[in-house]
Amino acid sequence: MISDSKVTREIVKRFHNAFEKHRPEDLDDLIGEGCVLENTAPAPDGARYEGREACLAFWKGVASSANLIFKAEEISTMGDRGIIRWQLRWSEREADRVRGVNIMRVRDGKIVEGLGYVKC
């Protein structure tokens, strides 16, 4: 039997790869019904998206932005939780970047929660 953590890791890695590779279509099979997303902005709480279609539309918009460069610093999982520490760049300038983390929850092989946070 495959452990929850192995399934979670596979799903979370596929999710992040969609952003690194700018392949928004790869998200279609990863987002579950009833998904909830809390974005990193606007501060202090971030925008909240509810439902599969709303979360998918937001994430696809980000993944399709060719000028955004995501790089995973670390991906870890425990049970149904996945944590992605990442860096986002939007230009070659050193100042044009931010580091952050997404805390994900996976249920039945689908992402059902994504909470995003950034360093200020």
The CATH architecture name reads Roll
Radius of gyration: 14 Å
CATH topology: Nuclear Transport Factor 2, Chain: A
Q: Approximately how much beta-strand content do the residues carry?
A: 35-45%
CATH class: Alpha Beta
**Number of E-type strands:** 6
| Measured distance between first and last alpha carbons | 42 Å
Report on the structure:
It comes from Sinorhizobium meliloti CCNWSX0020. Residues 12-113 form the SnoaL-like domain. InterPro entries: NTF2-like_dom_sf, SnoaL-like. This is SnoaL-like domain-containing protein. The chain has two helices and six strands; from the N terminus they run αββαββββ. With 120 residues, it is of the alpha+beta class. The chain has a single domain (4-118), classed as Nuclear Transport Factor 2, Chain: A, CATH 3.10.450. The chain has a six-stranded mixed sheet. The longest helix has 17 residues, at 4-20. The protein is globular and about 40 Å long. The termini are far apart. The mean pLDDT is 95.
Topology:
Layout lengths: L3 H17 L10 E8 L9 E3 L1 H12 L5 E10 L2 E9 L7 E11 L2 E9 L2
Parallel strand pairs: 1-6
Antiparallel strand pairs: 1-2, 3-4, 4-5, 5-6
